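Researcher: I'd like a structural prediction for the single chain below. Treat it as a standalone chain; there are no partners to consider.
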Amino acid sequence: MRPPPIPPFDARPLAGRVVLVTGGAQGIGRAIAEAVLAAGGAVLIGDTDVEAGRACLAEWSAGDRASFRRLDVAREASVQGFTKAALARWSRIDGLVNNAGIAAPHSGSLTELPLAEWNRYLAVNLTGAFLCAKHALPALAEARGAIVQIASTRALQSERDSEAYAAAKGGLVALTHAMAISAGPAVRVNGILPGWIATDAWRKPATRRRPRLGRRDHAQHPVGRVGEPPDIAALAVHLLSAQAGFITGQNFVVDGGMTVKMQYA
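Model: Treating it as a single chain, here is the predicted structure.
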């Protein structure tokens, strides 16, 4: 019996597919949206920053393959409007990237942390992913699509005074494998845990700048450099594509090797 032929490599694995990216106007979210476009897909980015969202569309010049809608993932009505806008424009949803979140990990001393601030972190960084999945799942199931959750290595290790952020990202890791079981086999669900990613150059034009990084910043990573948003975007596109059709319920650490490096004072 002859082995099956080597399948051709698909350089545009998201051609004809529609992907929703929350928090998609800046940073990692913007890089993922751009990678979706480069892979042949169409993208709807949602963000609370309207200026940043409009700047993306102007700079991409992607025509009808890119759209922006203001989105507050902590508000269910806003999430519903976001998913309905995608269906109204393209009549399908093939992928969802739950990237939106409060990026500041340090929320202050636990003994002085207001309950409202704790709840704000959970609402945006965890409940938002639940709401987006809840309302996108019917269309995703019809398309046999995929969800990618952007968590953090802070779900696995911590600095002081980061309890709210760590708890929310840890919850997102658990939500990923739980959703993979409930949504499968029609929808695959995977997570990415970024480490130190320098997003300065991926902000909106008014605040964009070169990252201020020194030799020591790069040298502490086993790969020899701090991460960049495209490092996360490349994996996100793969997980959204049919090329990752046998992968679900997994959480992938992308941190230049930092979490496996022994560190002694």
